[in-house]
Amino acid sequence: MDVKTTCLGVLVMGNATGYEIRKAFEYGPFAHFADGGFGSIYPAIAKAESPGMVTCKKHKQQKRPAKKIYAITDMGREHLFSTLKKDPGEDKFRSNFLFALYYADALPAEWIDEIITKRIADYKQKIECLVNINNQYCDDKNIAPTLIRHKGIEYYKAMLGIISNKKDKFIAAAIDNRNNNIKQP
Amino acid sequence: MDVKTTCLGVLVMGNATGYEIRKAFEYGPFAHFADGGFGSIYPAIAKAESPGMVTCKKHKQQKRPAKKIYAITDMGREHLFSTLKKDPGEDKFRSNFLFALYYADALPAEWIDEIITKRIADYKQKIECLVNINNQYCDDKNIAPTLIRHKGIEYYKAMLGIISNKKDKFIAAAIDNRNNNIKQP
DNA sequence: GTTTAATATATCGCTTCGATATATTGAACT
DNA sequence: AGTTCAATATATCGAAGCGATATATTAAAC
What we know:
Two copies of one chain form a homodimer. The first copy, chain A, has helices at residues 3-11, 18-26, 38-49, 74-84, 96-101, 109-136, 143-180, and strands at residues 54-61, 64-72, 92-94. Chain A is mainly α. Chain A binds a DNA duplex through helix 2, helix 3 and strand 2.
């Protein structure tokens, strides 16, 4: 999905500045299926303004550049929903962590130990975080955010179980190779 | 991870042409954590050749451009493994399917039904595929591919359970909105 | 008093993606 | 026998996007 469309997806939920759109991609439900940095958001939202998909109100501030609050228009909504009516295609998953594990037998055992230990802590924290959201905000009406929350919890739990289970084997493979001095770079 | 490094990751497993590197990103274990199209592989591998990270042997063919078989060098291995010793960062997950579901109440109920039904069939097929690989090739020595396989199976099973469970609610939300004629684009 | 984090906007160059072009072989179908 | 289709194989180009960086202020934390 291009950044222009994901920005419209944020704006359909309410008016926002470029900075606030960015935050939506970094935290909250959007972070689980979309992204975009400043370097893509600002040009994308500017490109959406000229054909009238969004409007921009400048909100003056003292000693600071004017805050630009963007609002979606009917044309913007139309663009968003017609794009969503196209084939979504496959999901994409990218992981430098799994990429590194693939070569565990050529990397130092300490490093493998470190990244797996860190990852386990990360997943535990993320699960806790997603479980807590439930107790505070979620209700049955907002089905999509609930689905995304469930998906996150299930995914992190699965990964946690698998890497906890295989941790010792990966470290053993790395140590084993160090003793043999074959693939070591 | 940049394409040059992921290409080196494929070549460390054995010599390959650009076309074969592409196939590794599309099918097999690499597809679960890395990617790259022709448009990025060819320039990346060419850029890796000049400093000597890979060597290229031209294999002449009749009535066809010469096949270029790339092989990794010690320098290439060093580059790969030193890159893998850096912080892998967070995993990335992108999904136009979840993006569309987020606006289910503004999309036609038939469309929501269609994409969920398709996705359920897709996940079932992918699970079957990953389970079958086990029976044919996998052994306990190749820990990383096994981990990736397990991760895939667990992930698809989790998603399958969640979307099967929520399917009716999503369609109901879409139908509900059509009756109210509010958000309909 | 100083440092750090958060708010806020924006640009620039390098990388990467998607679409497209070209050409041949072999299998499958009619 | 002829045709179509999928796979093999290489490669380019423009559009899009990413990461790093720059600037500036406020408020909280130490």
